[in-house]
Amino acid sequence: MMLESTINEQKTEILPLIKKRWSPREFDPVKNICQEDLNLLFEAARWAPSSYNEQPWSFIVATKENSDEFKKIISILMTGNKAWASQASVLVLTVASLRSSHSGSENFHALYDLGASVANLTTEATELNICVHQMGGFHHDSAKVVFKLPEMYSPVSVLAIGYLPENADFEARARELFTKRKRKPLDEFVFRNAWGNPFFEMNDFQKN
Ligand SMILES: Cc1cc2nc3c(=O)[nH]c(=O)nc-3n(C[C@H](O)[C@H](O)[C@H](O)COP(=O)(O)O)c2cc1C
Predict the structure, then answer these.
(1) How many angstroms separate the Cα of 197 from the Cα of each of 92, 183, 193, 194, 205?
(2) Which domains, and CATH codes, for the chain?
(3) Which of 48, 85, 102, 182 has the lowest CB atom count within 10 Å?
(4) Does ligand 1 come within 6 angstroms of the Cβ of 181?
(5) Ligand 1 and 134: CB distance under 6 A
(6) How many CB atoms lie within 10 A of CB 1?
(7) What integer pLDDT is reported at residue 4 of this predicted model?
(8) Ligand 1 in contact with 157 (CB < 6 A)?
(9) How far is the C-alpha of 150 from the C-alpha of 123, rounded, in Å?
(10) How far, in Å, is the centroid of ligand 1 from the Cα of 153?
(11) How far apart are the first and last CA of the chain?
């Protein structure tokens, strides 16, 4: 019984910022993110942990005010992402350095570390009521050419960053979505002893 309530509490009472984050497909098309807040987002990214402290992440940032740069990132997006992502205030191409500077060989953890830095950025954004929608749906080869990426640097994702449209209630939408969105139950991916043995024994209620 104790275990059940503990698991259930953990399921619903996670850190409020984690609970609040979600990926919208609509943004306020005119509201810009000020330079100070943009700076905070990348400071948060900067302080992520990384293997050997390699910090293998880079970001190519385009704000909507600079329409040529903004269009350049739009141009590499896949069709399904173009329309809604164009409403964002800022688009960011994330890039991982695949070569380890300490050993010269391939850095197996580069993508992992970049993901951690984007998670930091996203959490900081959520604190500022700014939304981040990450995209893998872009043309990787075009990105390399358009942004003149050096060899061993790989484009990994595009981030659409912006505010929800005026009068959208961020907290209410997050609460509503949190109850609707689906996630795998813990017993499908947290194991003990060997692959597939659940660490948490869960009842049907806890799985929903
Ligand atoms: C690496 C990555 C790639 C993604 N690619 C796309 C994409 O191309 N288009 C899109 O609409 N959403 C994309 N998403 C958003 C996911 O669909 C979304 O995070 C997932 O459905 C969970 O929803 P939530 O972020 O609101 O919790 C991507 C997310 C990640 C982390």
Answers:
(1) 39, 19, 7, 6, 20
(2) 23-171 (3.40.109.10), 180-208 (no CATH)
(3) 182
(4) yes
(5) yes
(6) 5
(7) 40
(8) yes
(9) 29
(10) 22
(11) 18
**How far is 75 from 69, CA to CA, in rounded Å?**
10
- Asked if 68 and 60 touch (Cβ cutoff 8 Å), the reply is no
Ligand 1 pocket test: pick from 81, 134, 181 the residue with the most ligand atoms within 8 Å of its Cβ.
Answer: 134
Which residue, by CA, sits nearest to atom 13 of ligand 1? 135
The model's pLDDT over 66-83, given as tens digits with 9 standing for 90+, comes to 999 999 999 999 999 999
What's the whole-number mean pLDDT along residues 123-132? 98
Ligand 1 centroid to Cα of residue 85, in Å, is: 12
Which runs of consecutive H residues, i.e. helices, occur in the chain?
2-12, 16-20, 35-46, 67-76, 79-85, 110-127, 140-146, 170-180, 204-207
What is the Å distance from ligand 1's center to 178 Cα? 15
